[in-house]
């Protein structure tokens, strides 16, 4: 197991180097002089420009800048945001819980609905349930989620007035020493109505963000289940006279779920990309919206740090999924 | 010799067999029908659209669709905030979306096939370098990478297409590489090599035609992804710029009216959904028809 883990980690090193090169290179290609951006609208004298350039290290050879950039990364220094003058890592970590909360709820929702949908569709192959659920899954898979979000706002916030249009919680509530996870903060604060308010704010964004992963998980569960149901050991289990429920839940489902775990893990990248759109539509103060704002403000240390950190998160989750796959799949564990 | 040069009757038989399996999937046939209809709409847009897509009708701002009170049959699906006919903009928008899909898939497919062929055929450090670069591209959330690339290149349709193609391309490279690795030690390749075929001939004429099935399916999926991503970039203000009648850009312009004029928001999104759904239906059908494992079962 440890060799397996080390092998995977060694495999990640070139990818990690590549990611740092991309993030470092990209922002140096962004249009606009970073020193002028820092100076703001008042303008700057040529002497002060040269001085600031030297201070920020822009006058040194590019590879020196790169090595220093990587060295700083290892000390947790991702630079300072141009707009807020705060460390990029602090900004990221402040906003990240909002995205984790939204993403976790979305992936949970997608899994809880997607797996049963796919499994039942496979068991009842060819039935109207199969056709309707797989049709729905394909529609979900094809959904432009930014439009889907707007439609839900029109219906549930505009017409029915059930849910708020944007934000994470009513302005009435405030948790000065919160963890950033609103559901948890609201629950432990003991303020009446806080938790309900947080849930009501979370419903629409998480449904929107869950749409595509749910469709993918449902389709994958169905095809994995179909494959397993055709295997000899399932036929043997049936022939032994086991109840259909037992055959499906004990013999088939456990094996069918192995590839589905990988699929769920791969949805983290999808959720990260989806968070950019979902958070923009619902003004959800997470890293997706922060990235969009940073790009439009040309706050390039933030764009650089955000790119790196988001890719890092996706890489880490994929590694965990790979390891988990090794743990639950005996064929890989013993090979 | 290879599948690249079958005799005409053989080719007809293959096509007939393909159509037999494809047409068994009702959804795929419907998807293909809708897609062909969209292609026709796009080609004949100037003849079909009742108005110019960019003509601003100051006397008819935010007119609702014809079946609603206040609507008129002059503007069947209503008008937007500056009085442009939504139906005409949607019809012209089909041009943008199909064009985006074609260009993106062509670039991604060509780039991916070449990289995948080279990586799979040569192996060794060439393979390692190419595939690590692909891993790096895949490590970023695709939309985010496309967004940052467009921010560098400057917002606009061309740059958006280039960015999306780069993001989608590793999938083709991986597929091609895997297929080449599986094929390159087979007997027919050995035979061609012994017969004196050069490297380029081996790669493109002998091996490639036998790796096409998964690439075609991936191409269809990428087409729908390209349409979705381009619309998303348009929605975020980084894709096609106004007044181009691109569906995502139309949605971005409509955002502030969502609670006042539902039609400016509903129809462009519906157009994106229908297009993407049709292409995905075709993709599912192609996968089933081209997958020999499913055929036998």
From TrEMBL, chain A:
Q: Where in the cell is it found?
A: Cell membrane
| Classification via PANTHER family | DIPEPTIDE TRANSPORT SYSTEM PERMEASE PROTEIN DPPB-RELATED
Q: Which Pfam families match?
A: BPD_transp_1, BPD_transp_1_N
Task: Please give the organism.
Answer: Cereibacter ovatus
Question: What's the protein name?
Answer: Dipeptide transport system permease protein
Keywords of the record: Cell membrane, Membrane, Transmembrane, Transmembrane helix, Transport
In which domain of life is the source organism classified?
Bacteria
Coarsely, its chief localization is membrane
As for membrane topology, the entry says: Multi-pass membrane protein
Q: Which family does it belong to?
A: Belongs to the binding-protein-dependent transport system permease family.
Q: Write down any Gene Ontology CC term.
A: plasma membrane
Q: What are the TM regions of this chain, as residue ranges?
A: 9-30, 102-123, 135-160, 198-218, 256-287, 307-328
Where's the ABC transmembrane type-1 domain? Answer: 96-325
**UniProt xrefs under InterPro entries:** BPD_transp_1_N, MetI-like, MetI-like_sf
One GO MF term = dipeptide transmembrane transporter activity
From TrEMBL, chain B:
- Tell me, what's a Pfam family for it? BPD_transp_1
> What topology does it adopt in the membrane?
Multi-pass membrane protein
Localization terms from the record: Cell membrane
- Main subcellular location of this protein, as a coarse class: membrane
> Keywords of this protein's UniProt record, alphabetized?
Cell membrane, Membrane, Peptide transport, Protein transport, Transmembrane, Transmembrane helix, Transport
Name the residues that span the membrane.
28-49, 98-123, 143-168, 257-283
Q: Which example biological process does GO assign this protein?
A: protein transport
Residue limits of the ABC transmembrane type-1 domain? Answer: 94-283
Task: Please give the SUPFAM superfamilies that the UniProt record associates with this protein.
Answer: MetI-like (SSF161098)
List where this protein forms a coiled coil.
Answer: none
Q: Which GO terms describe its molecular function?
A: dipeptide transmembrane transporter activity
- InterPro entries, per the entry: BP-dependent_transpt_permease, MetI-like, MetI-like_sf, OppC_N
Q: Which PROSITE patterns match?
A: ABC_TM1
According to the UniProt record, one GO cellular component term is: plasma membrane
Does Isomerase appear among the keywords?
no
Keyword Membrane on entry:
yes
PANTHER family per the UniProt record, alphabetical? D,D-DIPEPTIDE TRANSPORT SYSTEM PERMEASE PROTEIN DDPC-RELATED, OLIGOPEPTIDE TRANSPORT SYSTEM PERMEASE PROTEIN APPC
Family under the similarity heading: Belongs to the binding-protein-dependent transport system permease family.
Q: What is this protein called?
A: Dipeptide transport system permease protein
Native organism taxonomy: Bacteria, Pseudomonadati, Pseudomonadota, Alphaproteobacteria, Rhodobacterales
